[in-house]
Amino acid sequence: MTDATETETLQRPSQSSESNGATRERNERSILSAAERVFAQYGYRGASVQAIAEAAGLPKSNVLYYMGNKRGLYVRLLERMMARWNALLDDISVEDDPADVLEAFIRSKMQLSRQHPEGSRLFAAEILGGAPFLQGYLRGELRQWVQTRARIFEQWAERGLMDPVDPVWLIFLIWSATQHYADFEAQVLGITGKDEISDDDVERITRFLTQVILKGCGVKSR
Amino acid sequence: MTDATETETLQRPSQSSESNGATRERNERSILSAAERVFAQYGYRGASVQAIAEAAGLPKSNVLYYMGNKRGLYVRLLERMMARWNALLDDISVEDDPADVLEAFIRSKMQLSRQHPEGSRLFAAEILGGAPFLQGYLRGELRQWVQTRARIFEQWAERGLMDPVDPVWLIFLIWSATQHYADFEAQVLGITGKDEISDDDVERITRFLTQVILKGCGVKSR
DNA sequence: ATACATCCTGACCACTTGGTCAACAGGTGG
DNA sequence: CCACCTGTTGACCAAGTGGTCAGGATGTAT
User: Distance (Å) from CA B13 to C1' D8?
Assistant: First the structure.
């Protein structure tokens, strides 16, 4: 029953045209996107390839055909997120205006969490689990980045452009505050009673954080 | 091979004395402690009863004997953590000193994360995954608590005791900043190069956060 | 047509998952 | 002695896990 004519084509994806690498690209994109969601929600161990496949609308075998294995897929997602992260870590100098730099820092970090909430949560889940895959990155590149920034904050403090707060704790404060709205979205929504965080909310939060942190650190604009 | 004499006693736990409910209590404690660690690290789905049992040094069957099933164990842990949380949510009044209240708020929240890092991470993992088990709590008790506090902050602002910042975002800021050092401990350690966060560090962070947040919100002490 | 590369996927594998259960040990009270 | 309760645990089960693989479809180049 429910059987069609024998000539029914079960092979769908041909679609005549598009014979370049477009198929691969399209499928990889949808797999990566689905995997980001699933890994973010359940963590590395808790996520199943089956669940990712379903979220991507593909058979499990197909996911493994493109991604090799679960571990590789996960690492690839982490690297993609780190790349996004690095993209907004432009250099700063002691000559820059502290207020401008800090505001830009908060803004861009907030936007990153906003534009890639799943990636943000994926990252958070990885750190929560002890960062088994990101130890190297944390102890290497990121640490370096934090230290150079910290030195500049200190120099600003010496020049009386801001209070002599510990610059590393300040960076952590900004990270935690900006990340919160992506990672703990469920909590924010539950408590505020909203069913989504609007662009307006994001703008208001950004301004709130900028104001409190700049004032709190005694940052003077030139 | 490797077989001992037939009379070998495989039954260990007798221990002659302690015939009260002490056995149960001891075992439950070690199971709960182990489960908190494992759930925090891997999330609800990623944690296996087997892994919890090994961490507790007991056979899997024994864990299930005491806890019924995985879900029940998880819920019990969440409830325990909520109870700890509620314990420090004492009431405040408009007549209280804003500076005192906010500092006490930051301090106690910081201590909670410090004393129960696994519980804090367990909570974080639950929220990250969309808070499937905590929706009710968030939309109920916790929301209520936030709103009453928020109203008091607003009244303080009206009386000129602090800047008119959005009180809800302020509460989230404090939560995120204080929670960060437990939840993202791996990141903090990796970047600072420390191998543990000392009591001194906690005290310094607490003072830093208090200073920045109070100053940032223009809080006046009476 | 032939050959080649990419793509697709159901069947299958060994292993782990959460959970049940029966058998048994130890102690207590009658 | 018995009955009863608490505690213990290996054996077992159905379902799900990550991953492999053979066999086929499709399109391009020769």
Answer: 9
